[in-house]
Amino acid sequence: MAQMKRTVIAVGAMFALTACAPAGYNGADAGAAEPVAVAAAEPSVTADPEASAEPGASASPGAEEETDAPLPEGVELTDSLTGKKFPRMGSAVVNQDGYILYRFDRDTNDPPSSNCDGQCAEVWPPALTDGAPELKGVSDDDVGTITREDGTRQITLDGWPLYTYIGDKKPGAWKGQGVGGTWFVVNPDGSKNLECLPKGTPKAVAPPSKTESNESDSDYDY
């Protein structure tokens, strides 16, 4: 996988939240969303093969010679990142299936690192890759990868690891917004989308392994 650079871009100002729907609001169908007004990146990323990786960032160009760890059962690769706009929500990034991607405040972006594993990763599946995803409305300068503890590679945006949310039952849903006060829809530049926050602090759904837990009354706090 080619080495990818990342650039920090300032977060846009947040507008008034009076018109925002609660966390259950699912936005609009993904097909109705409009592309974000950001210069589209080329589908593939190239880099100097001699370039070295930054500490804690994506692996060096020689890493593609290594064999990636097997993907967890039932997990698909993230083949594309697309910046879009949704009613009320504003800008967001979706994967190839139209599902919105999130970032986690307990992670770090300098150096890039994920602190969501185990049951957390069951609820917030990491956006995994085996190469450079196709980009639209997202700058290749902001996209990178980290290697997780299980050996899989997770996509980062401005250094922030990306995730989907199992509580989003269909493309374009954004029930993960503001969960636990630590999970937020990610903007195309990697910053947090704070334009439309739910009232209170919603809880995450229970991880699938906790079959005895009730989804609507979960004590899961990730």
From TrEMBL:
Keywords: Signal. GO terms for biological process: alkane catabolic process. Residues 1-21 form the signal peptide. Residues 41-77, 195-222 are annotated as: Disordered. Residues 41-62 have a biased composition (Low complexity). PANTHER family: BLL4220 PROTEIN. This is Lipoprotein with Yx(FWY)xxD motif. It comes from Verrucosispora sioxanthis.
